[in-house]
Amino acid sequence: MEETISLRELADTLKKRLKLIVLITFTAALISGLISYFVLTPIYQTSTQLLVNQAKSEQQLYNPAEVQTNLQLINTYNVIIKSPAILDKVAQNLDLDMTAAGLNEKITVQSEKDSQVVNVAVRDEDPTIAADIANETARVFQSEIVKIMNVDNVSILAQAEAKEGAAPVKPKPLLNIAIALVVGLMTGVGLAFLLEYMDNTIKSEQDVEKLLGLPVLGSVTVIDVQNKGKSTVPATQKATVRGETIGS
């Protein structure tokens, strides 16, 4: 019984503060949409692929040991690609007003497990600049790795391209709006319960019973009077007040 009453009180609180909850929810979604579409700068991503594999002649056969060696080198290559030894030359070749640390934040290097392909992805506000950085990073790395590691087993598998009409990778307005809706709803519900908890005024007979722990035996009804003594209460109610029995 106690659980039923508690659930009813929760439902009454939500119903009572429904306008507040809806207002907060849609305000959060509106603000998120405005920021996503008009404030945040779109970021585009392009990528190039490198193949770590020793060049072979027609007479050479597949060598599993060599493949395993290439796979072990990939983790080292992932670090070298983002090192100042490579990125400083990329910034210099492209005449970028950017340090190696700044380029490092734009570049992501990853490879699938047991794969000899390394993916170099670059994010920038300009998709053309992102493609240029990706391609130049791959080219510089292919050239410098021969001097750094004394090996020549890197080839460029695919060039990065700046496609027209490409969608930005971030922000994602619809996702941001959906998150804002959920956060706004949670905030509105939380605020509704907080206001209800802080509201200690007595508004009904049930509030009196809950506060005093005593049953309510009766209540006094407020009678509105208009035009000098004329009551708006129906005749039946007037008769009850006077203690008389008169039909309506």
From TrEMBL:
Residue span(s) of domain Polysaccharide chain length determinant N-terminal: 3-94
Residue ranges occupied by any Tyrosine-protein kinase G-rich domain in the UniProt entry: 142-194
Cellular location(s): Cell membrane
Presence of keyword Ribonucleoprotein: no
Keyword vocabulary terms for this entry: Cell membrane, Membrane, Transmembrane, Transmembrane helix
Any one Pfam family match given in the protein's UniProt record, by short name: Wzz
Record GO cellular component, one term: plasma membrane
Family to which the UniProt record says this protein belongs: Belongs to the CpsC/CapA family.
Protein's UniProt name: Capsular biosynthesis protein
Species in which this protein is naturally found: Bacillus aerolatus
